[in-house]
Amino acid sequence: MPAVRVDGIEIAYDRVGRGPPLVLAHGATSDARLFRPQVEDLADEFTVVAWDEPGAGRSSDVTASFSLADYARCLAAVIEDVDLGPAHVLGLAWGGTVVLELYRSHASLVRTLLLADTYAGWKGSLSAAEVRSRVRGAERMLAVPDEVFAPSLPGLFAGTPPAGTVRLLSVMSAQARRSSMRAELAAVADADLSALLPRIGVPTLLLWGELDARSPVETVARPFLDAVPEATLVVLPGAGHLSNIEAPEAFNRSVREFCRSRS
Q1: Long-range contact set of residues 78-83: C-beta below 8 Å, sequence gap at least 24
Q2: Which of 32, 45, 136 lies closest to 92, judged by CA?
Q3: Taking the alpha carbons of 47, 53, 54, 59 in that order, is the dihedral positive or negative?
Q4: CA–CA gap between residue 136 and residue 104 (Å, rounded)
Q5: Nearest-CA neighbor of 15 among 205, 30, 35?
Q6: Helix (H) or strand (E) run with residue 112 in it
Q7: Which SS3 state, helix, strand or coil, does residue 60 take?
């Protein structure tokens, strides 16, 4: 298992395959395992790197003051550790906000951006009322006793996910850390990267589940499309917020074609 240390924090990641680097940043309350369908399929053409963000999976805990900039700095260290040059960088959901911050602060490490079912931060993509509602919901999850703490987010799927996926999400949820969720919540709720979007200077793929209830196509994806100069939007029919799991074949095909044409 490769790993890199940043200011005493160990960040673990999986590295599979050979070819141009494709770096995957997962969503909240999960880890690198969320990208199993992508790692297994895309490693024939790319060096696929899926990290466990700080505070998740095999990586070290985070402190209470861990910020969005800290997440981006750690992701930059992973890309530098892989040492294959600028990478195709894909962020799913909360991971997309981290990837946008990575681009803002370390643009030289990014060959292309792939943003899936994500936000320019909650403050940058959602109404103030919706942000308040989500923060209250997350705070209720954080307040439960340790013996029943297993956070799950509403509205992840448009349909019934495969049984194996449900089991995997349950395992990751049971292993989620309260300190990590607090750090993620503080970072994503207050982030507003909307002003960055018109300044993105690399080709950008927007991958969205047609029925994403948490980051809707019309109110979040299309403003991304309007703002990012070199953006292409692919809407995956019938998929929800975790479109990489609900529509893996279409998701992977879109990623492969986009990255192949820009490697």
Answers
A1: 78/4, 78/11, 78/13, 78/23, 78/49, 78/51, 79/21, 79/23, 79/49, 79/106, 79/109, 80/4, 80/109, 81/2, 81/4, 82/15, 82/21, 82/23, 82/47, 82/49
A2: 32
A3: negative
A4: 29
A5: 35
A6: strand 110-116
A7: coil
C-alpha distances in Å from residue 121, one per residue of 39, 65, 203, 228: 26, 18, 20, 15
What residue type is 247 in one-letter code? A
Q: How far is CA 21 from CA 52, 78, 220, 245, in A?
A: 17, 11, 27, 21
Q: In what order do the strands lie in the sheet with 3-6?
A: 3-6, 9-16, 47-51, 21-25, 87-92, 110-116, 204-209, 231-236
Asked whether 156 and 26 are in contact (CB, 8 A), the reply is: no
Whether pLDDT at 150 is above 90: no
Give the separation between CA 17 and CA 181, rounded to whole angstroms. Answer: 31
pLDDT at 166 over 90: no
Are 169 and 49 a contacting pair, CB within 8 Å?
A: no
C-alpha–C-alpha distance, residues 78 and 121, integer Å: 22
> Which residue is listed with tokens 């499309």?
225
Contacts of 127 (CB under 8 A, 6+ apart): none
Cβ neighbours around 111 below 10 Å, total: 19
Phi then psi for 116, rounded to 5 degrees?
A: -120, 120
Alpha-carbon distance values, 107 to 41, 68, 201 (Å): 27, 16, 9
Q: How confident is the model at residue 99 (pLDDT cuts 50, 70, 90)?
A: very high
C-alpha dist (Å) from residue 244 to 37, 85, 121, 248, 256: 7, 25, 20, 5, 13
pLDDT of 160: 80
